[in-house]
């Protein structure tokens, strides 16, 4: 049977664009549909604008430190509309790059919503139907609000990049990556930030000691963090225009803006997937095997829509592995083990492998950990602390986990991650000469375990 395309990709985010381009460069006839903007969550409403906001938010501390180092300067004030204009111009530029890359690879694009009509057919929103030998689902995810009375008054991370003005008082709800990152960003930009998290400590699932330090430092920098606290009800105060929030700790407070960062759900609604036999999981994610194949053999899925490890570089790898498997005859599973990641809080947290708690469940371990005031900040009179931590298997001596809380921890963990991924032992770390004077040198100079178990 002749198909219109060898591959039809749904979703123009990092994963979908990469898979489409690589398949097309290999000679496949490829189409891609995107209903919103090219670049997807990462480029348009995630990693990229977030990181630019992180940079913007760090200048107050940088200028303060500069003064402590003898510079005669003061921070002045931050002009959100100026920054926002530049930010969106940059996102427009990047979207253009994505479009160009697709066009340059010969991928045909459709700027519209589509749905799956059968195992080999895509229906475009204008009613046209296109057939494809393979369909790749790469629609990503979307923020979800928890179902609280009045939640329509709150924004999510999608809207935070478009605010007309920065609020004076902001409530951030949640304790995951997004909540903690934005609590820090907004605090750095001069917003009075309150954060409610329902659990006992933010960043659940990460190493206890590391997330404890992040939470402590966030509070020290001015984020008013309330643990064990959630929103019960919200209403608009018509007189003041602010949002009245009643919370589970009994507080009733007013905020100028509320942001929910309470998780994300895969974009699988109204796509016709279950009608054609694609199995979805409890959160609406596409259920796939190690080769990203769904329960319908001609339909694969990659990235956040599969809710495996929801990170851009993972989606890209899944896209490349899909092309290798399906178009190059080389079945390639994606290795989801030992993925380094960074949380761009202030200070940042970089992490790879097992937390101390997970490792202890698995086998006897030695824990090496040091926490100290880094030279630059200490000289500037700050009390900021950083943390370097290694979890080592007592039997194999391998480093099972590495956790860093420090300015630049994202950069550090990328490099430490290579050693951990290669299976480096504690003795391999010890054999490596320290780079002096740096913060990261502590990762190779920790002599005795602080705990064993
Ligand atoms: P997460 O799943 O990380 O966190 C969701 C948070 O919301 C948790 O603290 C959760 O609490 C809380 N929550 C969930 N439901 C409710 C509820 N009903 N009421 C109150 N709180 C609730 O999601 P995010 O939205 O922060 O991020 C989504 C994903 O995006 C991340 O997992 C990550 O993979 C990716 N990401 C990566 C970044 C990076 O690499 N730097 C940056 C941003 C996002 P609890 O812990 O109790 O479940």
Key terms for this structure?
FAD/NAD(P)-binding domain; Enolase-like, domain 1; 7-stranded mixed sheet; alpha/beta; 453 residues; 3 domains; 6-stranded antiparallel sheet; globular; binds NADPH dihydro-nicotinamide-adenine-dinucleotide phosphate
How would you characterize this protein structure?
It is a single chain. α1 packs parallel to α9, α3 packs antiparallel against α5 and α3 (47-57) packs parallel to α7 (177-188). It is built from 13 helices and 22 strands. It is globular and about 70 Å long. The mean pLDDT is 97. A hairpin with a 5-residue loop joins β20 and β21 (399-406). It has 453 residues and is of the alpha/beta class. The strands form 5 sheets. Strands 1, 2, 3, 4, 5, 6 and 16 form a 7-stranded mixed sheet that branches. It has a 6-stranded antiparallel sheet with strand order 17-18-21-20-19-22, with helices on both faces. The chain has a 4-stranded parallel sheet with strand order 10-9-8-14, with helices on one face. It is 31% helix and 24% strand. The protein folds into 3 domains: 5-142 and 265-326, FAD/NAD(P)-binding domain (3-Layer(bba) Sandwich), CATH 3.50.50.60; 151-262, FAD/NAD(P)-binding domain, CATH 3.50.50; 341-452, Enolase-like, domain 1 (2-Layer Sandwich). The longest helix has 25 residues, at 80-104. Bound molecules: NADPH dihydro-nicotinamide-adenine-dinucleotide phosphate. NADPH dihydro-nicotinamide-adenine-dinucleotide phosphate binds next to α7 and β17.
